[in-house]
Amino acid sequence: MMFGLSRSTQHRTQFEALLAPWLDPLYASALRLTRHEGNAQDLVQDTVMRAWRFFEKFEKGTNFRAWIFKILTNTFINSYRRNTRERSLQDESERQSVEARFFSSELTEQTQNPEAHLVDRLMSEDVIKAIDGLSIDFRMVVILADLQEFSYKEIAEILDIPVGTVMSRLFRGRKQLQKVLLAREELPASPAIDLNAFRERKKLA
Amino acid sequence: MNCRDLETELTPYLDGELPAGARVEFEAHLASCPTCPRNVEVERHNLSMIRAAAKAAAPVAPEDFKLKLLASLRTDSERQRRGRLQQLTAMAAGVTLAMVVGHQAYRSHQRRLYEQDAAMRHARQFPLEIEQSPEAIERWFGGKVDYRVSVPRFPNARATGARLLQVRDKPAAYIRYDAPRQMGLFVYGDDHDVDVGTEPAMATSNGYNVVSWREGDVVYQLVTDLDEQDIRGLVPGSQPAPSESLPPQPTTLDVRPASFQH
């Protein structure tokens, strides 16, 4: 019995050591996925407990970060699909060819515009809002690629989609972000936004 | 490569995901195109702005949340460990049970072998070595076996004689009764080879009914062709096997030395 005890403790210590560097990134990603602090904590908690229960299945020496992010996105998708009515883009747009998606006229127009240069200091708050405004499929790839800097291959494995799909979603997601952010720059900000933007500038100054 | 191709590959190019060959082509086009470099520069700039802003805004997990999380991890780990321990305990219990059942099976198999051998030897009708009164029979056995042999008195049955027999290499005192029907009684010194309690257990073997029971340090096996009903009258408390599960009934069979029996 002593052997069993020490082995399971050792097992947990090992898991905790692998997990520790990724708790903050997991939480940051969970927050962008759920857009709510309490839900983000629940999501990370669920993810970690699941990962712990399946830890025996994790092949030592392989990519722990990709492994646990896969559990995070799966956990999120499962509870998300249960809890919300937001429709997945996959159904409508995945049927179109990659080509057609890349060249949606509306989006290419935007890139062709030489004025479409975002100001040098974007407000984090605005970017967060723009990301949060993305549909779930785009949001997931943007979080994984631009916030967590996973490779296309890793994202494909995490989300269980082809690399081509990762690429096209990333393309479209980013285009949408730029569009929203550029529109924000052009529009006179509402007073509430203005106040926040003012605070942000003051903080940065 | 044309401007349209470049647009398709812009995303992987900016992410450093374009394979080497494609990248060379991509850059060759950039070097010769009047409009694409500007677009690529804008895209690169915008992407880095967005990434920087998103990362700057990335929160860290609250400290109390992390502590809570690690605590529940420990609780779960402890629960798992206990679960495994319970599994082990259950497994050990299973093994013990299997051993007990196996041992029981072995023991009842052993008794069965004695029942068979006793029935067979009774059927052989070996000549008796002494044909005298019960008291004389008891005396005759004195010194021939390591245990005291008394000749039980059965209602309506009379001991006619006796001899020594080997039952499965075990010395046995064999006493023959001849009324109302012939029966043989085997008396063994108890070394627990025959698994039986004080309550008589009945079985059939080689066409005979065999009743086994224990009296102190001695085991008796009665081999007879009487039916169960008659045996019950003969050996009080005898039940068809397995009778061990029933509450034991006191045997009233008199196994005191013949001289004390009336």
Topology summary:
The complex is a heterodimer of chains A (205) and B (262).
Chain A: H1 2-19, H2 23-34, H3 37-53, H4 64-83, H5 89-93, H6 98-102, H7 105-112, H8 124-132, H9 136-147, H10 152-159, H11 163-186, H12 191-204
Helix pairs in contact in A: 2-3, 2-4, 3-4, 4-10, 8-11, 9-11, 10-11
Chain B: H1 3-14, H2 20-32, H3 36-56, H4 63-123, H5 134-141, E1 159-167, E2 170-177, E3 183-189, E4 201-205, E5 208-215, E6 218-224, H6 228-234, E7 239-240
Parallel strand pairs in B: 4-7
Antiparallel strand pairs in B: 1-2, 2-3, 3-6, 4-5, 5-6
Question: Please, could you describe this protein's structure?
Answer:
The complex is a heterodimer of chains A (205) and B (262). Chain A is an all-alpha fold. Chain A has 2 domains: 2-83, Rna Polymerase Sigma Factor, Chain: A (Orthogonal Bundle), CATH 1.10.1740; 97-204, Winged helix-like DNA-binding domain superfamily/Winged helix DNA-binding domain (Arc Repressor Mutant, subunit A, Orthogonal Bundle). Chain A is 74% helix and 0% strand. Chain A is built from 12 helices and no strands. Chain A has helices at residues 2-19, 23-34, 37-53, 64-83, 89-93, 98-102, 105-112, 124-132, 136-147, 152-159, 163-186, 191-204. In chain A, helix 2 crosses helix 3 (37-53) and helix 2 (23-34) packs parallel to helix 4. Chain A is globular. Mean pLDDT of chain A is 79; it is low at 86-115. By secondary structure, chain B is an alpha+beta fold. Chain B folds into 2 domains: 3-56, Arc Repressor Mutant, subunit A, CATH 1.10.10; 112-260, Protein Transport Mog1p, Chain A. Chain B contains 6 helices and 7 strands. Chain B has helices at residues 3-14, 20-32, 36-56, 63-123, 134-141, 228-234; strands at residues 159-167, 170-177, 183-189, 201-205, 208-215, 218-224, 239-240. Chain B has a 7-stranded mixed β-sheet with strand order 1-2-3-6-5-4-7. The radius of gyration of chain B is 45 Å and the shape is rod-shaped. The chains are: A mainly alpha (205), B alpha+beta (262).
